[in-house]
Structure formats: structure tokens, C-alpha cells
Amino acid sequence: GINTVRGYDQGDMAAARTFAIATVEYRFPLFSFLGGTLFIDAGTSFDSQSSVLGNPGGARDKPGSGFGYGGGLRIQSPLGPIRIDYGINDNGDSRIHFGVGESF
After folding, report:
1. What whole-number distance in Å separates Cα of residue 20 and Cα of residue 25?
2. Alpha-carbon distance 65 to 8, whole Å?
3. Which of 4, 5, 55, 70 has CA atoms 20 to 30 A from the CA of 88?
4. What is the Cβ-side half-sphere exposure of residue 97, based on CA atoms within 13 angstroms?
């Protein structure tokens, strides 16, 4: 999702007790009100999905780990940066993510 691994919908990667996310992101200016970004995100549940009561991750066939990459725009507004990101996950599926403010 927008604050986890872009290229996946929110909650599509895992339902787990333990989860780690890593992001590498390069941000650069385009104009005074507009910036760009290139990113790679990765996440893992450390195979902890089965420890969640009822194993919802396994029941919904969530992969438990994966990565996404892509690019985006940052539009400066009075509310803070508006984020528009296009992410492609390791299965080749793509998503457009919208958000307000930076995730870090």
C-alpha cells in the first residue's frame, strides 16, 4: 500500500504478527511546486502469518513477502505534499497510490 510496499494494495501482502519494511527512495525537484521520486520497497512477514489466529494470510493466499518499485510525483500544497505513486510489484501487477504527506 501507499505507506508499506507500493505496487500492492493495502493489506494484500501479508496478515502477520511480525513484519518488516524497507524503502529506498530518491526525491528530486522538477519545478517549485512539483517534485519527482523513484523508489524500491520490500517487505516480509518472517513466515509469521500462520501464528495469527485462523491464519487469514494463508487462507487468503497472501505471499508473506515481496517488493515493489516505481516512480511518483509530489505536488506541494497547503496541506503538505500530495503523493501520487505508480508502483509495480514482484508479480508484475501495478497500482496507483495517492496520499498526503511523506511516509518518512
Report:
1. 17
2. 11
3. 55
4. 29
Nearest CA among 103, 98, 94 for reference residue 73? 98
37 neighbors 85 (Cβ within 8 angstroms): yes
Torsion angle defined by CA atoms of residues 44, 80, 33 and 97, in that order, rounded to the nearest 10 degrees: 40
Looking at residue 16, the DSSP 8-state letter turns out to be: -
**Cα–Cα distance list, 36 to 12, 33, 53, 80, 86 (Å):** 26, 11, 41, 15, 11
pTM score of the predicted model: 0.84
Q: What residues have CB less than 8 Å from 7, skipping those under 6 apart?
A: 41, 67, 68, 69, 70, 87, 88, 89, 90, 93, 94, 95
pLDDT in tens, 29-86: 999 999 999 999 999 888 776 777 676 666 667 777 899 999 999 999 998 999 999 9
Supply the pLDDT for residue 94.
Answer: 97
What values do phi and psi take at 47, rounded to 5?
A: 55, 35
